[in-house]
Write a structure and sequence with these properties.
312 residues; alpha+beta; Jelly Rolls; Phage tail protein beta-alpha-beta fold; 3 domains; 13-stranded mixed β-sheet; 7 helices; 31% helix; membrane
């Protein structure tokens, strides 16, 4: 069985690389004749198609890295032909010849940096400073599920047959295809899910909390479990993507954490204690550290010093 399996993989690899001889083509096609009577159910066929297609993309991605070719030059006709052939072999063959399991990939940003991540389904995620996202190397189940720590803006490819789920700080945001922002830092007392386009469903451990419409935000308090749905321009919550630091009735403690993540610094604040109850509202376009701290000092009547950090 192992020799048969190894030979099958060799033939598939050669087929993907366009190196299959006439005799080897006949050998591979014999698999089709052997398994053509084993019929997949429509649902199982979709699952198999997704799994194999994404693994073919992973395979070709490895090939192009080795050869130095760009992804835009991928031969999708070749992918489709390989996909059709392998799907035709049926569920038995899929179980007999195991494909690689999806690996978990984690991408993180340090304080003071942002990154754009392209997921296996071509959805994109922009990570804010001090954040991370974990996802499989390919989506091989009925759902596309990722885990977020921190803050990110999502642009999700539409696929009603494979819903997209984001797990963050105990909440799960479920979407089909939309754009939205999640703010769920470990150091924050609140989680905020802000919808820009489409629709999302936000679930807690006891069930659904809300189904949001564009320019609605769910604000969830970690300690109490109390939540509310607010109407507010989502652009206010995604201004960080345009390099705008925006404070909107934040406490001094919250503002301190935001500034520390933004500039990769540690702040020391000297105050009389009463200022901790004060809220701060301000907008800084393409902010500079010294100018931002000077403005905060004027707004709060405090003395602020800082030192550089190495949060990477």
């Amino acid at each position: 069985m192992m020799d048969h399996q190894k030979r099958f993989h060799e033939l598939v690899d050669k087929h993907l690389n366009g190196d299959l001889s006439t005799g080897e083509k006949n050998e591979l096609e014999s698999h089709y004749r052997q398994y053509e009577r084993k019929v997949l159910t429509p649902r199982k066929k979709q699952e198999v198609r997704r799994t194999i297609f994404q693994q073919l993309l992973v395979h070709l991605g490895k090939v192009e890295k080795t050869s130095g070719r760009k992804r835009t030059n991928l031969n999708f006709v070749r992918i489709a032909a390989s996909l059709a052939l392998i799907i035709a072999l049926g569920a038995t063959l899929l179980n007999e010849f195991k494909f690689d399991r999806a690996e978990v990939i984690t991408i993180a940003t340090g304080f003071g940096e942002r990154k754009e991540v392209v997921l296996p389904d071509s959805s994109t995620v922009t990570l804010n400073a001090g954040s991370s996202i974990s996802y499989p190397s390919f989506f091989d189940t009925d759902i596309r599920q990722v885990t977020l720590k921190g803050e990110a803006f999502f642009q999700i490819e539409h696929n009603p047959d494979q819903p997209f789920l984001v797990s963050a700080a105990g909440l799960t945001t479920k979407v089909l295809g939309t754009t939205f922002n999640i703010n769920a830092y470990d150091t924050s007392e609140k989680i905020k899910v802000s919808l820009k386009t489409g629709s999302v469903q936000v679930d807690g451990k006891d069930g659904t909390l809300a189904i949001l419409k564009p320019d609605e935000q769910l604000l969830y308090h970690n300690k109490t479990g109390i939540y509310s749905v607010l109407t507010q321009k989502t652009d206010n919550d995604t201004s960080w993507m345009k390099n705008i630091l925006k404070l909107n009735d934040h406490s001094l403690q919250e503002a301190q954490k935001i500034v520390e993540r933004w500039f990769n610094v540690e702040l020391q604040i000297e105050s009389n204690g009463e200022v901790t109850q004060q809220t701060i509202t301000g907008k800084f376009i393409d902010p500079k550290l010294d100018e931002t701290l000077h403005s905060l000092e004027l707004l709060t009547g405090t003395k602020i010093t800082y030192k550089k950090q190495n949060h990477k």
